Amino acid sequence: MRKRKTVATSRRGFVKSMALGAGALASTTGFRVMASGLSPYAGKLLVTLELNGGADVTQLCDPKVNTPGELKINNWADTADPGEAGNILFAPVADNFNFFNRFGADMVVVNGVDAQTNSHETGRLFNWTGSNAEGRPSLSALHAAANSPDQPLAYSVYGGNTTRTAGLLSYNRFDDISMLRSLATPHRNWWGDGSFARPEPEILEAQRLTKESVSVLLASADLTPRQRKSLTTFQSARVGREGLEKLAESLPNQNELQQRDEFLAGDDMFGSNLKQQMQAALTVMQSGLGSSADLSLGGFDSHENHDAIHDALYTHLADAITFFWDYAEKLGLADRILLVVGSDFGRTNRYNDGNGKDHWNIGSYMLMEQGARWGNRVVGASDELHFARGINPSSLALSDTGTILTPAHIHRAVQKYLGIDDFATANGIALPDVEDIALFSSSKQTRV
User: Fold this and answer.
1) Distance between CA atoms of 15 and 426, rounded to whole angstroms?
2) Do residues 149 and 34 lie in contact, with contact meaning Cβ atoms separated by under 8 Å?
3) In the chain, which residues fall in CATH 3.40.720.10?
4) CATH class assigned to 45-179+260-426
5) Predicted confidence (pLDDT) per residue in 165-211, tens digit
6) Does pTM surpass 0.90?
7) Exposure pattern of 120-134 as b/e (b: 16+ CB <10 Å)?
8) What was the pLDDT predicted at 432?
9) How many CB atoms lie within 10 A of CB 225?
10) Is the distance from CB of 375 to CB of 107 less than 8 angstroms?
């Protein structure tokens, strides 16, 4: 005669099956589960925005007029002078006037940054890891690993092509905000009308039994060390799942979700989901499940029809960054965020035969923070033909024998500002032989 299973035995089997299911979810999605009882992350947040393809900063934050006897750098310079917003000069195109007048006080512009390459792949690697060699993590990955490694969405990627972790942690890539909703609530049929694939009471009862069963089993003195470790791991997975469910509840509904922007650039139609990327990243950060995010806006590789493309993209960029800070303010996050905007490199100091511009190794960064004590400043410079100029690392004054800035200098300064440089050193991934630049000095230096 077959023995009848007891309730305790059934529950053990139920817990085992649920644990296996949780393990499968973690392995397939790449989620890191929270340790049991871990509090939501409430520290500094880092967001990077990659202008993919090589943005022409002479039409943004390092404006150049035309030099007699040289090939034309910018068509706009035939009829206009650079604009001014405090200490920051900007090109008078797109929506730059409104953008820099609103945010100039909250940013430091870093000009004359030498990516030392015209290769997209190497340029992206250098600009977002601080090194032009493999083996170092992106700035976002380093920040997440140092501050929130156990959160399930510590480092989330919504766009971009340089996702390096150096083995410090995993990352989660989302091409659509709906992926967050479906992964956080896999029991719902998000492909259809959102109805439950299983009856809701059944799911809630299963969750209750799981929680109670694990608590009862962990209180037992008869567990082997291996059994206790397995149950503790499962309990951690359950807590992480609960955090993800809370995230799902806070995600914007379909009516609130930012839709894809479509806009003309000359004769070409461009599309961008940058605002949705921003909305997803900020929602995750509000939940306390992550501390770093990568965003991306593509299309800047304008070998033809350069002016129309950059004008349209910079207009969209200004609108999107305005949305970003307004939404961050709405969620109560604005005072915790450092936003770093950069690109692969710059574009040539002349037009080609197709009215485009080609690859140029000199570019810029913009670093933004609400109420930045170091804002309204320009660090570094390029000359009238957009070649990098040297600076004194201490005083930041221009110097013919000074240091030419590279992405390594910016990463070194940001690491120190965020307090993650010691973590990098302890893990053997610090940037060697890089001078300290007073990028975040509180002195209101005039532009160079």
Assistant:
1) 39
2) no
3) 45-179+260-426
4) alpha beta
5) 999 999 988 877 766 666 555 555 544 555 445 555 554 444 554 55
6) no
7) bebbbbbbbbbbbee
8) 85
9) 7
10) yes
